[in-house]
């Protein structure tokens, strides 16, 4: 899994060391040599797990899809962003952990409480 691009749809085979990477930043972190750039690229689709070649010099709009499963792999990259938030479930979905201050929590009533209905006894 790539920590730089969250929606990576393919892995790319590096032409210099013949290893698979999700992005150039992953190659730079794991290898000591610079990334060799060529026009012929080898991809592995993460959806159907099949490999295919594409020529980057003749890249067209139809080449943005996997030839085996039609997975659209040329997308705008979603990168992780730093954020501070409270861990837990969404309160709009599951609000059992929230206390409602509008309702007073009285003692639970039972049928054995004598003072609740003492005036109704005959």
Write the layout of secondary structure elements.
Blueprint: E1 10-13, E2 20-21, H1 24-30, E3 40-45, E4 51-55
Antiparallel strand pairs: 1-2, 1-3, 3-4
Give a short overview:
The chain has 122 residues and is mainly beta. Helix content is 6%, strand content 14%.
What can you see in these coordinates?
The protein is mostly beta strands and 122 residues long. Helices cover 6% and strands 14% of the residues. It has 1 helix and 4 strands. It has one helix spanning 24-30; strands at residues 10-13, 20-21, 40-45, 51-55. It has a 4-stranded antiparallel β-sheet. The radius of gyration is 30 Å and the shape is elongated. The mean pLDDT is 80.
Low-confidence stretches: none
- The radius of gyration over CA amounts to 30 Å
Q: How much of the sequence is in beta strands?
A: 5-15%
Name the overall outline: elongated
Largest sheet: 4 strands, antiparallel
- The N- and C-terminal alpha carbons lie at a distance of 76 Å
- The helix/strand series, from N terminus to C terminus, equals EEHEE
Secondary structure: number of strands: 4
Mean pLDDT across all amino acids: 80
Strand order of the largest sheet: 2-1-3-4
Distinct helical segment count: 1
**Class of secondary structure makeup:** mainly beta
The share of residues in helices is under 10%
């Amino acid at each position: 899994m790539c920590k730089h691009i969250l929606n990576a749809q393919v892995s790319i085979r590096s032409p210099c060391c013949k290893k698979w990477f999700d992005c150039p930043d992953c190659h730079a972190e794991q290898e000591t040599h610079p990334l060799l750039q060529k026009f012929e690229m080898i991809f592995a689709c993460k959806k159907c797990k099949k490999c295919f070649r594409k020529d980057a010099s003749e890249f067209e709009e139809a080449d943005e899809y996997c030839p085996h499963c039609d997975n659209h792999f040329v997308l705008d990259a979603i990168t992780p962003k730093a954020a501070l938030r409270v861990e837990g479930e969404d309160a709009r979905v599951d609000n059992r952990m929230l206390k409602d201050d509008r309702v007073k929590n009285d003692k639970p009533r039972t049928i054995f409480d004598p003072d609740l209905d003492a005036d109704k006894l005959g």
